[in-house]
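Q: How would the C-alpha cells look for this protein?
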Amino acid sequence: MAGLIRREDVDQVRERARIDEIVSAHVTLKPAGVGALVGLCPFHDERSPSFNVRPSVGRYHCFGCGEGGDVIEFVMKMDGLSFTEAIEYLAGKTGVQLRYEEGGSARPREEPGKRQRLLEANRVAAEFYAEQLMGPDAAAARAFLAERSFDRSDAEHFGVGFAPKGWDALQRHLQGRGFTQPELVASGLMSQGQRGIYDRFRGRVMWPIRDVTGAVIGFGARRLFEDDQGPKYLNTPETSLYKKSHVLYGIDLAKREIAKGKRVVVVEGYTDVMAAHLSGVTTAVATCGTAFGADHAKVVRRLLGDTTAGGGLQLKSGTSLGGEIIFTFDGDAAGQKAAVRAYGEDQRFFAQTFVAVEPSGMDPCDLRMVGGPEAVRALVDGRVPLFQFVVRSKLDEFDLNTAEGRVGALRAAAPIIAGIRDTALRPEYARLLAGWIGTDERAVAREIQRAASTPSLREAPPTAPGGDSGPGGSAERPATGGVPQLPAPDPRDPVARDERLALVAVLQYPQHVPEVFDTLGEDAFAVPAWRAVHSAIRAAGGAAAGRDVSAAQWVAAVLEQAPETVAGVVTQLSVASLPEDREAAIAAFVEGVVRRVVDLGLTRRVADARSRLQRLDPADTETYQAAFAELLAIEAERRTLRESANA
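A: Here is the predicted structure in C-alpha cell form.
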C-alpha cells in the first residue's frame, strides 16, 4: 500500500491550486472589496451572500454557517473526498507530480483514490461511446440525430455517442485500460448479473452527463431498437459520483452564461438542451430522470448569485436584479403538473420565475426543427410569470360560467396569491384574479387575506438549514463541527471592532504592519478571542515573519500555531473584508488601524499604572517611585507612538 503524500508536494498543490478558480466552478463569486470575493454559500441555504473567498491567502469562510478552510478542505467538503483523494484531484488539475513516502515514486495508476478512478472510467467510457458513433453499427444512432437536425459537429460539441449492442464491448475496452470489475460496477457503467458483469448501456444513443467542473459523472441513454425491452430513457444509477437529484445536464456548458446573463432555462430532455444551445439559448439545462427539486434549485441559485430578496426587481430590459429562472413545459396536462411542481420550488429562489409554454405541445427540439432557432428563442422570450401560469391553470379546472365555479376558483387560487413571496405583487395579482374570474376585487382581496392568515392554506416558506443572515449580510458565527468555540466578541464594542480590524490587517497585509505591533505583549488585546489569535501570530514570529512569504504561507504559519479552538477564528479573519476598498489606500489604512490598537493598549496600560499608583502609600518611597517611573515610561511610549503617526 502506498504511503503518505510528501508534505512538500501537498504544499505545492495548495499553492498552485487557485481557490477562486476551484470555488467558481460551484459558486458565482463577486468582488467585495480589495482582494475579496463573495457568493452564496454552497454548504447551506442562504438568501444573502456570506461566503467569502480571499485568493491571496488561499482560504474561504462562510460567516453564515461557519464553514471555512483552504482549497483542499473546500474540495473535500464539496465533493465528499478524503484528504488524499482531494490532493490527487487537485494535483491532476495543477500538474503537480505527487510522491509518496514509501519509495518516493509516483503512485501506480492502479492505486489512485477511488473517486478519481471512477471519474477516469467515465471519461474513458465517454470517449469510447463518441468513437462508436461514427462506426458501421451506429447507423440508427446517426439517423436518430439527423432526424432531429443534429449533425456530426453538434454531436461532437455535446459529446454524444453510441453504445454497441453487445453485452461486453465497453467492459473489454475498460478492462484493457486497467480498470477492475469492482470499479466498473461502482461507476455505474456495468450491471451485476448471475453470470458476472455486463454493459449497462447497449444499443443506445449516449449523452455524457458532466458536473459543473466538466468531469463526466454519468450517462443518459435513449433506446433505439425494437428488441430493446428496457425503458425509453435509461440513466446511470445512483453512485458516489452521480446523484440524480443534484445533476443538471448541460450545466458545464451553461454555467458561465448563467452567471453572466443571470438567467437559466430549464428544459425537459437532452435533445432539448442541444436544440436550445444551438438556437442561441446557451443557458439551457435539464434534469436527468427526475423532477426539478430542492437540490437542483441550490445549484442554480449559486450560479445565478441569487441574492435579491423579494423576488427581484424588474428592470427595463426585462431581466430582474435577482435573475430569471425559466421553465419550459409542454402545454398538455403533464406540462401543467410539472409547472405546479416548479411553483412548489419557487420560494427557494430570489430570482423571478417564469414559464415558457408551447401551446401546440412541441418541445424545444421539435420547435427548432419546425420553426428554426428563431422559434426556440421566441418561446423563451415569450415567457410568462410562473404564478400567473399556475393560477390560470388552476382556474381552468372550474366552470367560471357558474357562481359555484367562480367561488371554487377563487378559493383555489387565493392561497397561491397569498403565497407570493413579494408582498408588493399580491395586490396586482389580486386585481388580475378578479378579472380572470369575473368577480368583485374586494371579495378577492378578502379571500387572499384569509388565506394569508391561515397557514394551512398556503405553503410555508422554506427555512435554511444553516440559518440565514438576512438582507445586508450576517454577523460572524463560530464555526461548527464539534470543536469548542471561544466566546464571540460583542460586535457593538468599539474596542472589539478595532482589535478585530487590526488582526484582519496583520493576517492579510503583514507587509504594511508597523514594527511597533511586534513589541506588543501577550495582554495587549482585551478581547479573549482576539488575544488568542494574537498569541498565535506571536508564536508564528510576529508580523515581521509574514513580510518575506506569500500571504497564504503566512496565514498557514499562524494556523499551525493556533489551537483547534482558535483555528476557525484565524480563518474568519484571514478572509474578512476591510472597510477600505481603495487598493492605493490599503497600506495607510493598515498602519493606521494597527497603531490605533497599539495606542488603545498603551492607554489601557496608562490607566492601570495610574490606578496602581493611586493605591500605593507615598510613604513607601521606593515602591511609589518605581510605579511612578513605570507610568512615565508608558506615557512616553504612547507619546512617541502618536508623534510618529502624525509625522
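The CA atoms of residues 210 and 286 lie 12 Å apart.

The chain has four domains: 7-112, 115-389, 397-457, 494-646.

Upvote if useful.
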